[in-house]
Design brief:
With 296 residues, the protein is α/β, with parallel strands linked by helices. The chain contains 6 helices and 5 strands.
Length: 296
């Protein structure tokens, strides 16, 4: 049985740990509110961007010859995994990496090669530990991304796709639903899905749409300029969703850790009181035994 001094030392250690987890919980909660605001401001812009692309694509005579829309036989798939720079966030990093590895197994079963791109130090370290070669990686902005970060990633992806180094790009990230729910989401980035541009059209629809608006320059040229912006927007949206998911997961994990620490302190305090009572009882028995010996 642990001594009274050992129990007291452990209680002090757990209390110090609880102070840290409580502080991390409060910081994550405050930052989560700001991250939620950024997502709420971003989502309407992303939706409006997609509406603009749909309208322009319907007015265009053809958009399948655009660089980011061209489809070809898939030989190499690039997987972009969005993870965090830090841990202490429960299953946040683990669940997105598991989905990425599931996707890898599926693609390899179909005879496709895999190229890895990752944001966040945790994902990069895990992939390197498994001896995967990284095509590109970014870090330092996982919990507070900027549009410039999304642009850097988008430009790299567009270069790889235009140079035919990859034939498909898939994005894997945590989508923010609520402080308690973060869903792993898989999205095809390149080639840009035709469903984003409104799907199949016929000539009558094109003529009708062209009749409502005057385009300068031509819709095809406008669409060519919009596609890279759309790609940047989708990546930026995923980065913001992932940042909010990380903060929510960290807040929940630290809250649970603080709760567990409080329960452990209660149990240790009870054990300390029992040990103290046992010591007092033993001292009383020794005093009584000594008194009996003197009386005899």
């Amino acid at each position: 049985m642990a001594s009274l001094q050992d129990i007291r030392r452990r209680i002090t250690s757990v209390r110090n740990t609880r102070k840290i987890t409580k502080a991390l919980e409060l910081v994550a909660g405050a930052r989560l509110r700001r991250a939620q605001t950024r997502i709420e401001e971003m989502r309407p812009y992303a939706d409006r961007m997609q509406e603009l692309m749909v309208g322009t694509s319907r007015a265009a005579a053809s958009f399948r010859n655009l660089a980011l829309m061209q489809r070809r036989d898939v030989r190499r798939v690039a997987v972009l995994v969005v993870t965090g720079d830090r841990g202490l966030a429960g299953p946040f990093n683990g669940q997105v990496l598991r989905r990425a590895f599931e996707l890898e197994r599926t693609e390899r079963a179909e005879g496709h090669d895999i190229g890895w791109l990752v944001t966040g130090r945790k994902g990069a370290s895990t992939l390197r530990f498994r001896r995967y070669e990284l095509t590109a990686n970014w870090a330092g902005f996982a919990d507070k991304p900027t549009y410039a970060d999304a642009q850097a990633i988008s430009h790299r992806l567009a270069e790889l796709y235009s140079a035919e180094e990859v034939d498909r790009v898939v994005l894997v990230y945590n989508r923010y639903v609520s402080p308690l729910v973060q869903r792993v989401t898989t999205t095809d980035l390149l080639p840009i899905p035709e469903g984003v541009l409104g799907g199949e059209r016929d000539g009558d629809v094109v003529k009708a749409k062209r009749g409502d608006f005057i385009y300068e320059p031509e819709p095809e040229e406008i669409l060519q300029r919009l596609l890279p912006v759309y790609l940047e927007t989708e990546i930026y949206r995923a980065l913001l969703e992932s940042a909010a998911s990380f903060l929510a997961a960290q807040m929940t994990a630290m809250r649970n850790a603080s709760k567990n620490a409080a329960e452990l302190i209660d149990n240790l305090t009870l054990a300390m009181n029992r040990a103290r009572q046992a010591e007092i009882t033993q001292e009383i028995l020794e005093v009584v035994a000594g008194a009996d010996a003197l009386a005899g």
